[in-house]
Write a structure and sequence with these properties.
The complex is a heterodimer of chains A (175) and B (138). Chain A has 175 residues and is α+β, with helices and mostly antiparallel strands. Chain A contains 4 helices and 7 strands; from the N terminus they run βαββαββββαα. In chain B, β2 and β3 form a beta hairpin. Classes of the chains: A alpha+beta (175), B mainly beta (138). The interface between A and B is medium-sized, with 23 and 21 residues.
């Protein structure tokens, strides 16, 4: 597993897709301190200031069914990681979001590039970890682990646990 | 397997043969059509070599990898999110032509050949089935 850490990036998914097309190995991870153009499904902007955890995983070439399953499983892995580390009760809004107290705390977006076959797959995960406040409009629908617990979150520890979970789950669904 | 189906007022005589593992021949009113599975496990149409004049006919076999690259087809069923090419525009090998939201993921469909867009067969927000033609190239 190779982790590329970048301070400021447009979008970890965008860069991961570019790296994958240039031949980067599966399980190359792109992690950013902040994203200037982070996005979720249908290109809806993802608020990505410094403090949050934003990363994308270049996935091994897989059947499209397996990628779909992994996307759903990723939401469970993120929710379980939150539950295991904090006294919080995350809820999964399938397939892409994890909520706490009805507010979004994490999102997942898997993107594929397909010709005759699946050529590139990346999974982007954004988690509102150490975000102190959200802009007006977002504060009603988004929250962070720091807001919910009042404590600073160790982003690296969370990243490590999620990556471990993803790797284990992909093994169980892939041939 | 032999059967007959009636669509509107027309009767179609259909015979299905398994030519070899993974290759089906479907004879509809004495016209042959060939199908195989693509790498996504979906049934796609392939062309017999004898129908493609530019291909050497000596072997008179079947082109298994016969997805016509002038036709960009949807590999999965889903909703067209964006169309990134226009009729008359140039498309390069590997260029994104359509984004398809399917199976809870965003899928960029890329061209497997270069060419000029002859026709865009779909519209944004349209549902497409697997195997449906999205773009025709000249």
């Amino acid at each position: 597993m190779k982790i590329e850490r970048i301070k400021t990036i447009s979008s970890t998914n965008q860069i991961a897709k570019e790296l994958a097309q240039k031949g980067a190995e599966p399980w190359t991870i792109v992690v950013a301190e902040k994203q200037t153009a982070g996005y979720g499904k249908e290109r809806i902007s993802w608020f990505s200031p410094k403090g949050g955890l934003y990363f994308s995983v270049i996935l091994p070439k897989s059947q499209i069914d397996d990628l779909q399953t992994l996307t759903v499983l990723a939401a469970f892995i993120v929710a379980k990681t939150i539950k295991d580390n904090f006294s919080l009760e995350p809820l999964i809004k399938l397939p892409n979001d994890v909520l706490i107290n009805q507010k979004k705390v994490a999102g997942i977006l898997t993107e594929n590039i397909i010709g005759k076959e699946v050529k590139v797959s990346v999974m982007g995960i954004g988690i509102n970890t150490n975000i102190d406040e959200f802009p007006q409009g977002l504060e009603k629908i988004a929250t962070s682990l720091k807001i919910e617990t009042g404590e600073e979150v160790d982003n690296n520890k969370i990243l490590e646990q999620i990556l471990k979970g993803l790797k284990e789950q992909l093994k169980t669904i892939s041939q | 397997m032999q059967t007959e189906i009636k669509i509107k007022d027309k009767i179609y005589k259909i015979e299905i043969f398994e030519m070899e593992k993974g290759l089906l021949k479907v004879n509809i009113n004495k016209e042959d059509y060939f199908f195989t599975k693509n790498k996504l496990g979906e049934l796609i149409s392939v062309q017999p070599k004898s129908k493609i004049p530019e291909i050497d006919q000596e072997e008179n076999g079947i082109v298994l990898d016969g997805l016509n690259e002038r036709e960009i087809r949807s590999p999965i069923a889903g909703i067209i999110s964006t169309i990134d090419v226009k009729k008359g525009g140039e498309v390069k090998l590997g260029q994104k032509v359509v984004t398809l939201i399917a199976m809870k993921m965003e899928n960029e469909i890329i061209a497997e050949a270069s060419g000029i867009v002859k026709e865009v067969k779909v519209k944004e927000s349209q549902f497409v089935n697997s195997g449906e033609i999205l773009i025709l190239l000249d």
